[in-house]
Input
Amino acid sequence: MEFYTEEDIKKIIKRSAEILGVSIQGEAITEIAKRSRFTPRTANFLLKRCRDFAQVQKGELDEVSAKKALCLLEIDEIGLNSSDRKIMETIIEKFSGGPVGLKTVAAAISEEENTIEEVNEPYLMQLGLLERTPRGRLATNRAYRHLGYDLPKDRQEKLL
Output
């Protein structure tokens, strides 16, 4: 499965905004596209939630309102949602970054294995935050940095 490019997603958001009769500024389109997980369905969902937020605030759908809406939805600047962060934080905090098996991660966060494997992992791997190894799931150095964790000493030495 290949993901769409950010430019493809921007076009989809523009077209969807026209269909919905939503006036949206270019910076808002970019902000939504960056956080859409490179999937049209997610982009359209986020567009509608950002539109709703702007309407409730009686304002325009611009970069500021889009960022506020996405913050309320707990979607970070690279598109991670709360369950993505929960998976990665669990691997880092409870299992020292891994490797750890899928069943163990699923049990630790009370989530279905299929959901993690089919919904969360493809995007986490595409971003370079998670590796699947024969021994289990492994948080990458990029995951540590993005989530604000210090790299373990053994990983710091490998970078030198």
About this structure: The beta strands are 130-133, 136-139. The CA atoms of residues 90 and 117 lie 15 Å apart. The mean pLDDT is 92.
